[in-house]
Amino acid sequence: MVKKGIYFIQKLSGRFSTRKNRRYQVKPLWAKNLPGQNDHLSRPRNRVALIKQWLAMKNSRPQQSYRSARKTKKRIVLTGTATIAVTLFLIFFILDGQARLRRAVESITMFQVSELLITGNGIVADQVLKDASGITLYQTSLLVLNKQKLKDRIESVPWIASAEIVRTWPSTVEIAVQENIPLALIHGSAKTGAEFYYMDKNGVSFLPVTPGGNIDFPVVTGLAELPEGSVRQKAFAEVLLFLKKVRGNDPHLPLQSLSEVHVTPEGEMVVYLVDYTFPIFFGNGNTGQKYARLVQVLKALYKKGKGSNLISEIEYIQMDYLQDKVLVAQTGSE
């Protein structure tokens, strides 16, 4: 009986202590509710099951971290700032911003042109080229100087064949030019409104002759009266070849001794000298060979003429008399 009484007391006290402890007991991590589960959970049987429940709880949370959210926010801020900057830039240029920027650049004293150098000119005066350049000292900025436009302005001067522009920082511009060198004066047609033009070595007429201009050049006549076509083109080519040969300034036939090169209606060339009035008939074709023969003929005439004045008695010279033959006709000869 005693043993049964002790056993009953121990069992009763054990139930009491268990209920008391459960009142203050906190649910362990594995016992917390998971999404979609009831409050009643059974204790995991092993450690593997406990880890699986913990991972399920972790995966159920939002995946975006604090750092990722911060980067996204920063990207949005930068994109918005760039858009605002581009918009303001466009508005600035629309509202005359480009002109204001140009004026601001031109106002930098350090880069304003303080020296303009002209080289290579002999016919055209320095001031003419400076005026054509459009550069104003201490106003035009080297920063905004357009070299191509400046080159075009200089080459628009009739006597200028080409120009090269060199910028020397911070404030110097050098213009090196090559001038058109007249080879002859060519007679123009009535349609051109001018009597004569300066012609360069390429046969290009680049400037009308004005009163008081330099006319110390051979004169080409008769070409303007020829109709357009092969005859005129061939005759012009022969005239140009002859002038280039004479430009070599052989002592017996220098360029300054040549007065006129005339082209007949048939397209044949006739040459006149400054000091003598007799004609030299070149015909048409083989101008290079005929020039060489003429030099030899004049050399012989000048040599024999000492004391006898033989060349003054010449009536005409015919370069195409016969093949490889030159006819020198004297006054009074049959």
How would you describe this structure in keywords?
Cell division protein FtsQ, 334 residues, membrane, nine-stranded mixed sheet, transmembrane, 38% helix, Ubiquitin-like (UB roll), FtsQ, Rossmann fold
- The CATH topology assignment of the domain at 184-330 is Rossmann fold
Form type: elongated
Order of helices and strands: HHHEHHEEEEEEHEEEHEE
Q: Helicity range of the residues?
A: 25-40%
- Name the beta content range: 15-25%
Q: What is the oligomeric state here?
A: single chain
For the secondary structure, the number of strands is 12
Q: Quick one: CATH class of the domain at 184-330?
A: Alpha Beta
Transmembrane segments: 76-95
InterPro entries: Cell_div_FtsQ/DivIB_C, FtsQ, POTRA, POTRA_FtsQ_type
Protein name: Cell division protein FtsQ
Domain POTRA: 111-180
Question: How do you describe this structure in short?
Answer:
The protein has 334 residues and is an alpha/beta fold. It contains seven helices and twelve strands. A nine-stranded mixed β-sheet has the order 6-5-4-7-8-9-10-11-12, with helices on one face. It has a three-stranded mixed β-sheet with strand order 1-3-2, with helices on one face.
Describe the structure.
This protein has 334 residues and is α/β, with parallel strands linked by helices. Among the domains are: 109-179, Roll (Ubiquitin-like (UB roll)), CATH 3.10.20.310; 184-330, Rossmann fold, CATH 3.40.50.11690. It contains seven helices and twelve strands. Strands 6-5-4-7-8-9-10-11-12 form a nine-stranded mixed beta sheet, with helices on one face. Strands 1-3-2 form a three-stranded mixed beta sheet, covered by helices on one side. The model is unreliable at 16-20 (pLDDT under 50).
